[in-house]
């Protein structure tokens, strides 16, 4: 699935009241790269884990605010 379609599918799932578990495949796919980026920025593993967790949580809660046509992984890195 193209990345812009992935974000749109997740946006629709969130809008329709789907459980956050529908977001798990994204979490599993992007956790390592987001963690590596956070670790690069902070140099602290625990802080990096917290940042990644908060980023996914904010993404789920604010899915409706993601720019149309945006790449999900790029949007997550900006959070």
List the helices and strands and how they pair.
Elements: H1 3-15, H2 24-42, H3 45-61, H4 72-78
Structure overview:
- The structure is a single chain.
- The chain is mainly α.
- The chain is built from four helices and no strands.
- The chain is elongated.
- The model has no long low-confidence stretch (mean pLDDT about 85).
Short description:
The protein is built from four helices and no strands. It is mainly alpha-helical and 79 residues long.
Tag the structure with descriptive keywords:
79 residues, mainly alpha, 71% helix, 0% strand
Structural class: mainly alpha
Number of strands: 0
Shape: elongated
Average residue pLDDT: 85
* Element-level helix/strand string: HHHH
What is the rounded Rg?
A: 12 Å
Helix content: over 70%
Which sheet architecture does the biggest sheet show? Answer: none
Q: Spans with pLDDT under 50 lasting ≥5 residues?
A: none
Instruction: Give the terminus-to-terminus CA distance.
Output: 22 Å
Number of helices, counting only DSSP H or I runs of 4 residues or more = 4
Strand fraction equals under 5%
């Amino acid at each position: 699935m193209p990345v812009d379609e992935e974000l749109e599918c997740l946006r629709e799932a969130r809008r329709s009241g789907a459980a956050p578990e529908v977001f798990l495949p994204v979490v599993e796919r992007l956790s390592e790269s987001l963690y590596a980026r956070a670790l690069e920025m902070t140099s602290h593993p625990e802080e990096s884990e917290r940042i990644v967790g908060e980023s996914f949580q904010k993404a789920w809660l604010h899915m409706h605010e993601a720019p149309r046509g945006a790449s999900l992984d790029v949007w997550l890195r900006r959070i």
